């Protein structure tokens, strides 16, 4: 599959996602990756890799990306993953390095829910627990933005400049939830981490469609389109990006069913699979 690109203002998403095949998403700015799939050259320029869990369609590519970055003598890569899988992922990485007879330059860091990582100027990633069959995390991308204080709105630019030069603080800052990436998860995520519903861009799986597959979502801790419909009234995102569709379904089926079940978001629902896989 060729990577698919989505743009939302200054935010650019590039990636592929098919359940059981591979999932990775590069987000710019700041240029980090959420999951690594089976490895892609498109991730060779990425310093920060956030691995949601150990299933190989999300994590197998870590050694490949480290290999490519080492080949091109890039700066040391930071790899973040659930703290429960640090040892196992480290073993996989070092086995690959031994096979290649090279030394990868990287730092492997385990994260727990609530941990934060600075990823750029006034940008951070915060980990949260997801509802999956293995230890798993989702990630919030947070950005601190500065806005003119409400009581100063409407003043002329010259007056604002005068106040600034006099030492008055004319702006206030607040942290905004720019994007949330949920990785693999079942429906308990909406109860346990309700903040996902408020992200400007919500990247969330929708693996199954149809009544006959309704039980598979709960059994394997994945989302069925019915689970999204159940929280539709609470979804406050500006853009909804659906990933991890089962190979049983086509992208157009998911797009059509999601817009039918979530009419308030019609026109703002995006299905990310990959170019050439529909």
Topology diagram in text:
Elements lengths: L3 E5 L2 E8 L3 E7 L3 E5 L11 E3 L5 H4 L2 H10 L5 E6 L3 H15 L5 E6 L4 E5 L2 E7 L7 E12 L8 H9 L5 E11 L7 H4 L8 E5 L8 H7 L4 H6 L8 E5 L7 H11 L7 E3 L7
Parallel strand pairs: 4-5, 5-6, 6-7, 11-12, 12-13, 13-14
Antiparallel strand pairs: 1-2, 2-3, 3-4, 8-9, 9-10, 10-11
Q: What can you see in these coordinates?
A:
The protein has 278 residues and is α/β, with parallel strands linked by helices. It has helices spanning 56-59, 62-71, 86-100, 157-165, 189-192, 214-220, 225-230, 251-261, and strands at 4-8, 11-18, 22-28, 32-36, 48-50, 77-82, 106-111, 116-120, 123-129, 137-148, 171-181, 201-205, 239-243, 269-271. It has a 7-stranded mixed sheet with strand order 1-2-3-4-5-6-7. The chain has a 7-stranded mixed sheet with strand order 8-9-10-11-12-13-14, with helices on one face. Strand 11 (171-181), helix 5 (189-192) and strand 12 (201-205) form a beta-alpha-beta unit. Helix 2 packs across helix 3. The mean pLDDT is 92.
Uncertain residue segments: none
- Mean pLDDT value: 92
General form: globular
Biggest sheet details: 7 strands, mixed
Total of helices = 8
Structural class: alpha/beta
| DSSP strand count | 14
Please estimate the helix content.
10-25%
Q: Give the ordered list of helices and strands.
A: EEEEEHHEHEEEEHEHEHHEHE
What is the gist of this entry?
With 278 residues, the protein is α/β, with parallel strands linked by helices.
Quick tags:
single chain; 278 residues; alpha/beta; 7-stranded mixed beta sheet; 8 helices
């Amino acid at each position: 599959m060729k990577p698919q690109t989505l743009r939302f203002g200054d935010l650019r998403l590039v990636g592929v996602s098919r359940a059981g095949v591979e999932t990775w998403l590069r987000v710019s700015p700041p240029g980090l990756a959420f999951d690594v799939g089976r490895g892609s050259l498109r991730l060779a320029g990425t310093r920060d890799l956030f691995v949601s869990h150990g299933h190989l369609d999300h994590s197998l590519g870590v050694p490949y990306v480290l290999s490519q970055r080492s080949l091109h003598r890039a700066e040391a890569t930071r790899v973040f993953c659930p703290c429960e899988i640090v040892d196992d992922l480290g073993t996989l990485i070092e086995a690959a390095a031994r096979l290649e007879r090279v030394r990868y330059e990287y730092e492997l860091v385990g994260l727990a829910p609530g941990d934060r990582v600075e990823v750029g100027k006034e940008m951070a990633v915060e980990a949260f627990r997801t509802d999956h069959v293995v230890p798993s995390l989702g990630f919030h991308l947070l950005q601190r933005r500065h806005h003119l204080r409400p009581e100063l709105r409407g003043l002329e630019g010259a007056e604002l400049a005068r106040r600034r030069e006099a030492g008055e603080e004319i702006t206030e800052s607040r942290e905004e939830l720019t994007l949330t990436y949920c990785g693999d998860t079942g429906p308990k995520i909406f109860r346990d981490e309700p903040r996902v519903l408020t992200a400007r861009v919500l990247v969330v799986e929708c693996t199954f469609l149809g009544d006959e597959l309704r039980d598979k979502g709960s059994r394997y801790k994945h989302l069925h389109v019915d689970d999204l419909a159940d929280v539709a009234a609470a979804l406050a995102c500006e853009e909804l990006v659906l990933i991890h569709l089962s190979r049983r379904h086509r992208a157009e089926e998911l797009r059509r069913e999601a817009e039918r079940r979530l009419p308030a978001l019609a026109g703002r629902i995006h299905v990310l699979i990959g170019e050439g896989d529909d």
